[in-house]
Every structure is written in C-alpha cells, then in structure tokens.
Structure prediction request, 271 residues.
Amino acid sequence: MPQKLAPQKVLDAVRGAPGNRVKVAVSDIDGVLRGKYLHKEKFFSAAQRAPDGGFGFCDVVFGWDMNDQCYDNTTLTGWHKGFPDAVARIDLGTFRQVPWDDGVPFFLGDFVAQRDGKEAPLSICPRSVLKNVLKRAEKLGVLPMCGIEFEWFNFLETPQSWADKGYVRPQTLTPGMFGYSLLRANQNRDFFKALMLEMGDFGVPIEGLHTETGPGVYEAAILFSEALEAADRAILFKTGAKEIGARFGIMPSFMAKWSAQYPGCSKAETR
Prediction:
C-alpha cells in the first residue's frame, strides 16, 4: 500500500518542487483521464477545503464521447445547459510526481455537486461512484483488494500517421504471435525498461511485464492494492504508457478488440 503523506507535507512538497506548474486530472464518463496544468498559486487556492477550494472543470466530460462528440440525450449537462464548469476537489492523497515530465506534481480530483449551500459527490463522477461502493462494502465489513492486469497492442504509429491512414492497418510494433518472448522484449528494451522503472516512480508499481500472444502485444501486472488505489493506478497506467510510448515512436492502444483476427485485450482481478 502507498504511504500517504499528511496534507501539509504534500503542500510543502509541491511548494518545493521545481517550476511553477501542477498537473491535475479527472476521469470522464468513459474512464478516460482528462486534465490540465495549473499555476502553483492557482493550485494552492484550489487545494483549500470547501467552500472556497476546488478548481473549475467543464462538465462536458460527462456529455461527450472519447472523440469529443456531444451526446444529444444528456440530462446532467448538454447544449441546453451551456456546458458550464463543475467543481473538482483535489485529492491530496493522490500526490505523485511525473518522472517523464520534469517531475511535475500530479493529483487526481473528484467532482462535487453544490445545491442549496450543501456539497455532495457528483453522482456521475466515476471516482465518486467507486467511493460510494466502497463505503457500502465497508459497512459490510469488506475491504476489496484488486490486482489490475492490462493486455494491450503497441503500434509503430503516431496519432498523425494513423490519422493519415484513415485509422486502418496500423503497423504493429512486432509481427506475428510470440508470447513471453525475451527476444521481443529485448528488441524494444528501452521502452520495456521505461515502463517498468518510470511507472514505479510514478506510484504505479509493475509486478510483471512480458509480451503476450499477438503482434506487438504486451501484458503488465500492476501490484495489487486497495480498490480505490488500484483504480487510480489503472487509469494512470493507460495514460502513462501512452506518454512514455510517444517518446519511442510507439502508440499503445487499450481497445478491447481492435481487429477481429487477433485476441482481445484487458482484464482485472479482484479478491
């Protein structure tokens, strides 16, 4: 389990970090990480407790899909409401630093609803939904522990090169099927190494990493933890793998099944 710092120590660490920016992120309705950079002064203002703390984040993230296409049947948000800013509260317990981004401080946030001077978790916020489920589990005397495993394809593409192809026939990192291959892992050892080491430094420890059956397919097992921490690690792993991969000209994809001729991807374990 991660060692949580006291809130004041977290704020002191941010204050002492180089630069003047902080990275914050939330989960959208599809479990995709959406975020922004805040100036440190803005961050310290946002890190205050209610009612003055928090930062604004457009609630359109609950009204569009992964291609930023707005749904036409939403009730919480939509064209009829003008897509206003919602309030997101920074969870100081999620403090990390991003090794591949100059060690910038990083935090996750939860959306909250404000009505009649009162505040409550926003019911559609994925992280808040999980927190509510865990509260119910706690009342039953249950503490869910989760281990997340990801299987995913890696392509020798950039977003632009794949767009130029019309999003078809991406070039896989390696050809053919070769699960548990040390040869294939060695061929891309710099990417392999960066995933293992930098993810660990990012607070997403990887227990095992190997090639899986499928062209350019990897599998990573993330160290098990309490369910909320496991969920945080999962969403951060997917984004982190893509950011690290871009450095090597590699584009990871976590689509469940991008091609009918190859095995599907992704799984999780709970106990």
Observations:
- The mean pLDDT is 92.
- The first helix runs from residue 7 to 16.
- The two ends are 15 Å apart (CA to CA).
- The first strand starts at residue 21 and ends at 27.
